[in-house]
Amino acid sequence: MGHKHTRSEILDGALAAAHDDGLSQLTFGRLAKRLGISDRVIVYYFPSKIDLINEVIIAMGSELQETLAQAFTEPAADHLELVRSAWPLVTTPEADSVFALFFEANGLAVSGREPYRTVVPTLVELWIVWAAEFIRGDPDEQRIEAEAAIALIDGLLLLRQIAGPESADRAARRIGIA
């Protein structure tokens, strides 16, 4: 009998496939071929494509949070200070891949496709709550500042993905975060 893949190995393979080819191209058949296994092995761990996509999005969210966690080490006074600390880390080639996947998931969510329409807003909400912990102040202000930080990071990184790093860097300098 061949190598028995674990759920974790299959999820890692699915996340790598999503990074390489995009979320919209992720299928049981393509993933099975990539991993050299039967698609029945994937179905054993992920009974539906929605289950697989949900887990890939959660794993992608963890990657994004890990990237941001490196910058969010000290409580910030406001969203600008938080974004200033994050900017050098979120503008690396490694982060570009993660954010490109995140923006694809956002586009699929905005177009109403499930499970993206349900999972992506939940993921963003979790990031806002998490980021609020890194801002000094009362809870209402922390949330507002976290929303502003996430919006600013996402906007600049979307510009980076579409118009290129130079454009995003110019905008970041104009805003005063780079």
Automatic annotation (TrEMBL):
GO MF: DNA binding
Highest taxon listed in the record's lineage: Bacteria
Residue ranges of domain HTH tetR-type in the record: 4-64
Residue ranges of DNA binding: 27-46
Annotated SUPFAM superfamilies: Homeodomain-like
Sorted UniProt keywords: DNA-binding
Keyword DNA-binding in annotation: yes
InterPro entries per the UniProt record, alphabetical: Homeodomain-like_sf (IPR009057), HTH_TetR (IPR001647)
Pfam family of the protein (one): TetR_N
Keyword match Secreted: no
Protein name per UniProt: Putative TetR family transcriptional regulator
Species whose genome carries this gene: Ilumatobacter coccineus (strain NBRC 103263 / KCTC 29153 / YM16-304)
